[in-house]
Amino acid sequence: MGGMARLDALADRLSRIVGAGSVLTDPAELATYDCDGLTYHRATPGIVVLPDTAEQIAAIVRACAADGVPYVARGSGTGLSGGALPRTDGVLIVTSRMRRVLEVDAANQRAVVEPGVINLDVTRAARPYGYYFAPDPSSQQVCSIGGNVAENSGGAHCLKYGFTVNHVLACEVVTPDGEIVELTEGPGYDLLGAFVGSEGTLGITTKVTVRLTRLPETVQTLLAGFDTIERAGEAVSAIIAAGVVPAAIEMMDALSIEAAEAAVRCGYPPGAGAVLIVELDGPASEVDSQFARVKELCAEAFEIRVAADDTERGLIWRGRKSAFAAVGRISPDYIVQDGVIPRTTLPEVLARIDALSREHGVRVANVFHAGDGNLHPLVLFDGAEPGAGERAEEVSGKILDLCIEHGGSITGEHGVGIDKAKHMPRMFTAEDLDTMQMVRCAFDPAGLCNPGKVYPTPRLCGEVPGRRTGVHPLVESGKADLF
Ligand SMILES: Cc1cc2nc3c(=O)[nH]c(=O)nc-3n(C[C@H](O)[C@H](O)[C@H](O)COP(=O)(O)OP(=O)(O)OC[C@H]3O[C@@H](n4cnc5c(N)ncnc54)[C@H](O)[C@@H]3O)c2cc1C
Fold first, then answer.
1. Helix (H, G, I), strand (E, B) or coil at 159
2. Would you list the DSSP string of 268-287?
3. What CA–CA distance (Å, rounded) separates 242 from 297?
4. Which fold has domain 218-405?
5. Is the shortest distance between the CB of 472 and ligand 1 below 6 Å?
6. Which DSSP helix (H) or strand (E) runs through 385?
7. What is the pLDDT of residue 477?
8. What are the b/e assignments for 93-123, b being 16+ CB within 10 Å?
9. Which residues are in the FAD-binding PCMH-type domain (predicted)?
10. Which of 76-80, 259-263, 404-408 is predicted least confidently?
11. Fewer CB atoms inside 10 Å of the end CB: C or N, the chain?
12. Distance 151 CA to ligand 1 centre (A)
């Protein structure tokens, strides 16, 4: 059977599982799903299916496995590394109809939710009990918990509270052979830990038990304007070195302030080369004393504003939260980069990024989670100008090289996806990558679950392109088996 006929037959079978109204094959409807937040990679999915239950997802996965058809899970499609990029020869399994908060168990500080539940809706459900869900990606009004789990998403407040992985207690998962299993914390190998952050390559989560965090007694927020980004970077290092653990420390440079100002009129200190947002939360007595210390450590700032209430706090955060989208006001196109460096190297790396920007004539706006050294350089270009996209890509790649050179990483929270698979060999040896592939093969020997993502040229479990021809060193030494 040819590819199209095979997909048509599969669409019929999927209709019998979920009902005809939940299977999309009309090209106009499929086009809605042709990319995630990384819009310059696009592919129209062969079939889109919108299941309601874990059992339906298991049956869909079994149907795909029987036909050897690849499939990709999708939550809200806000990912920034192309993780949910569909396959034209495959099925896109979208969880947007699985949005029930199944249980809020305040006494045990946990909630059980379906994978399509929006991040902020967990907090909305928990707030009446005095709790919230701590991981707070800037996309939290739209992104799904399933996507957060797959990407191990972070956010402004993850500096103090940890990433998604620190807030997931169990996941119900449909494995690539179509079984429904429960991964939990506990004795034995940390399979839950392997699953969180696996970018949809080890299975599809259908139910997530999350940890709830007590709402803090008090929150204090300040905005500090600095003449230069180096001074702001030094203040970040000084705050952390002083043993203060703020809930968040965010930094924006002059170009990103300009963009945010144009978009949302956030009223940040005029003429600032950089601003820092520092937020502390916790018991009032502790926050009060640490906040005073933070103000002292920001002594190089030419202006410090303290939020008097939630409205003023909202105003301070407005500029930061809108920063990615705001850059669209000052540039027709941009690449959102995501790299990590040790905090202490912030001033040096920022100076090197500035030098790269000048050398290549490519503007770079810097917005980042400064406290955990997670940079988000926004590399600006005009796609209509010949060669501009390529120059921006080059600068973007060189920024990642800088991160690796300084002992950091090619991604902090947006994941590898399709976008950074090519950069993985810059961080890992061929043996490292093969070993990671063996973990993947243990879950998904047929290589049908989100293939082509994360790893550059998968070779171990028959994924195209290119099988490994030689024997893997771990197999040769008798330390591992191929599945
Ligand atoms: C404006 C903006 C701001 C952002 N800010 C942040 C930020 O501060 N921090 C941050 O970490 N990220 C941020 N992101 C990136 C993105 O929102 C997160 O990666 C988010 O977790 C993706 O969730 P989603 O539901 O949109 O997932 P999708 O984009 O739909 O999918 C992401 C990945 O998860 C997989 N997946 C989805 N559902 C499941 C499931 N049920 N089981 C298994 N795999 C699944 C997909 O296959 C894909 O690989 C931002 C994005 C935007 C557009």
1. helix
2. PPTT-SEEEEEEEEESHHHH
3. 9
4. Vanillyl-alcohol Oxidase; Chain A, domain 3 (3.40.462)
5. no
6. none
7. 61
8. bbbbebeebeebeeeebbbbbbbbbbbbbbb
9. 41-215
10. 259-263
11. N
12. 6
Exposure string of 205-218, with b = 16+ CB inside 10 Å and e = fewer, is bbbbbbbbbeebee
Q: Cα(336)–Cα(81) distance, rounded to whole angstroms?
A: 9
Most distant pair of Cα atoms in the chain: their distance: 72
The verdict on pTM exceeding 0.85 is yes
Tens of pLDDT, residue by residue over 226-257, are: 999 889 988 998 999 999 999 999 999 999 99
**Alpha carbon of 280 to those of 218, 285, 405: distances in Å?**
8, 12, 32
350 lines ligand 1 (CB under 6 A): no
Q: For residue range 296-345, what is the model confidence (pLDDT) as tens digits?
A: 999 999 999 999 999 999 999 999 988 888 888 899 988 999 999 998 88
Ligand 1 mutation target, pool 32, 48, 153, 443, most atoms within 8 A of CB: 153
For the chain, give me the number of helices (H) and strands (E)? 17, 19
Q: Is 155's C-beta closer than 6 angstroms to any atom of ligand 1?
A: yes
Q: Is the CB of 95 under 6 A from ligand 1?
A: yes
Rounded to the nearest 10 degrees, what angle do helices 3-18 and 54-67 cross at?
Answer: 160
Share above pLDDT 90 across residues of the chain, in percent, rounded to a whole number: 83
Q: How far is the CA of 361 from the centre of ligand 1 (A)?
A: 31
Stretch (H or E) spanning 60: helix 54-67
In DSSP notation, 295-310 reads HHHTTT-SEEEE--SH
The conformation of residue 129, written as its DSSP 8-state character, comes to G
CA of 147 to the centre of ligand 1 (A): 4
**SS3 label, residue 99:** coil
Would you identify the CATH topology of the domain 3-94?
3.30.43
Mean pLDDT over all residues of the chain? 92
Beta carbon of 451 within 6 Å of any ligand 1 atom = no
Alpha-carbon gap, residue 259 to 167, rounded angstroms: 33
**Number of other residues whose CB lies within 10 A of the CB of residue 462:** 12
Tokens 């600095």 sit on residue: 226
Mean pLDDT for 200-214 is 98
Q: Give residue limits of the domains in the chain.
A: 3-94, 101-214, 218-405
